[in-house]
Amino acid sequence: MKKWAVFALVGYGLFALAIYYYLYDMAPGEIPEIYKGTSADPAVFLTAAEQTLGKEYSTIKNFLFFLGVPFEWLVYFFILVFGVSKKFEEWSKQTVRFSVGQTAIYLFYLSLLTFLLAFPLQYISYHFSRVYRISAQTFPQWMKNELIDFWVSYVLMFVLVFVLYALIKRFKKKWWLAAWALFVPFTVFMMYVQPVLIDPLYNDFYPLKNKQLETKILNLADKANIPADHVYEVNKSKETNALNAYVTGIGGNARIVLWDTTLKKLNEEEVLFVMAHEMAHYVKKHIYIGIGSYLAFAFFGFWLAAKWMERWVRKYGKQLHIKELSQLRTLPLFLLVISMMAFASSPFSNAISRFEEKQADAYAIEMTRDKEAAISAFQKLAREGLSEVKPPALVKIFRYGHPAMAERIYMMETYPLEVKEGKRKEERSGASAQKSRD
Ligand SMILES: [Zn+2]
């Protein structure tokens, strides 16, 4: 077992070096020839200093991302291999009699330990977003969000873990199917309450402050059959300088949310373009497609996790002091497997997302027919967020739910808008539905 730990650590070190080499020495992500000199060329709309800052900042963020994912796996693996999980379970059993309390205590120790171990990387990431003036949060404000994150995920995890282990005890073989069957309504419920219960823990949401702009936005929303009370502004300027907007929630809680930073830094036409883009997600029900594919993936994921974990316990259970899967101490194994599967599937979910984003961009330009506003909106988004105009391939595959900014701008510039007068056949289906994408 100790040997495995050494292998894992050496493997992690080599991986970190390889990623460093890829991101810094190979420095991929050149601007393709066809973009040169067009409005998609960063040299055209960014100063040399802005380009350098954007590249530096993005590369740091990318590097931290690729270090962070396997670091999480390493943590779960060590917690298992060095008997930490077993210790936590024993302590919880010494403290209380009932399994509800034992789960709560075990989970608290585990959450606290993983939180503390992940903290340095989290802090470094915050530090750089401060240095590059993306984050506008003071340390106490940032820390407060970290703590809210901790408790929100603790409560949700508690519910999930308690039910999961009860099911493993009851259904020795088909527990994964039972777990998935309960996971479906849980996910739908969470999507429903997210905008009204979870999001307000972090930020204030309110109707648009600029009433003149609001009228224009609501007129546009009306064209797409989106109810007026589904459009919100959120006070983001106290924590970030980046621009964004997104669609979230389902059913009656579906809403389009515009960051106040976006409203402050974009002109009216640009805001309307961004709004039209979000409306496309809403109208095309991308949220529901997202939930559907997520749950389909989860079905396969639960099954695979069950098979994998049962094999592990059979093979290595003795060495790890695990008698059966239903012991709480196996949780880090479950988290490890889930995290690995999520990472492995991210290229697919990102590809689906990028496809939807393209659809939304096309819908927006058809609706507003204002190429100039579309292009300048994207250019400002790139500038204010110090985003990479053309990311390296690996970064795009694993991190980009949106097409690269250069691609989006180029698509707008070359978009074939019909000049013909008369009725256009845009199917603006009446909808009262949504998704959570920006
Ligand atoms: Zn979008």
Briefly characterize the structure.
The protein is mainly alpha-helical. Helix content is 68%, strand content 3%. The longest helix has 38 residues, at 331-368.
Structural descriptors:
438 residues; mainly alpha; 15 helices; 68% helix; binds zinc ion
Structure description:
- There is one protein chain.
- Helix 4 crosses helix 5.
- The chain is 68% helix and 3% strand.
- It is built from 15 helices and four strands.
- The chain has a four-stranded mixed sheet with strand order 1-2-4-3.
- Bound molecules: zinc ion.
- Zinc ion is lined by residues 277, 281, 357, 360, 437-438.
- The site of zinc ion has 6 residues, from helix 10 and helix 12.
Residue fraction in strands: under 5%
Number of strands: 4
Radius of gyration over C-alpha positions, nearest whole angstrom: 24 Å
Return the average pLDDT rounded to an integer.
92
State the order of secondary-structure elements, H for helix, E for strand: HHHHHHHEHEEEHHHHHHH
Tally of helical runs:
15
Which secondary-structure class do the elements indicate?
mainly alpha
Outline, from the CA principal axes?
A: globular
User: What small molecules are bound in this structure?
Assistant: zinc ion
Q: Percent helix among the residues?
A: 55-70%
Largest sheet: spatial strand order:
1-2-4-3
Our measurement of the CA-to-CA distance between the termini, rounded to an integer number of angstroms, reads 44 Å
Residue ranges: pLDDT <50 for 5 or more in a row?
422-435
Largest β sheet strand count, sense and barrel closure: 4 strands, mixed
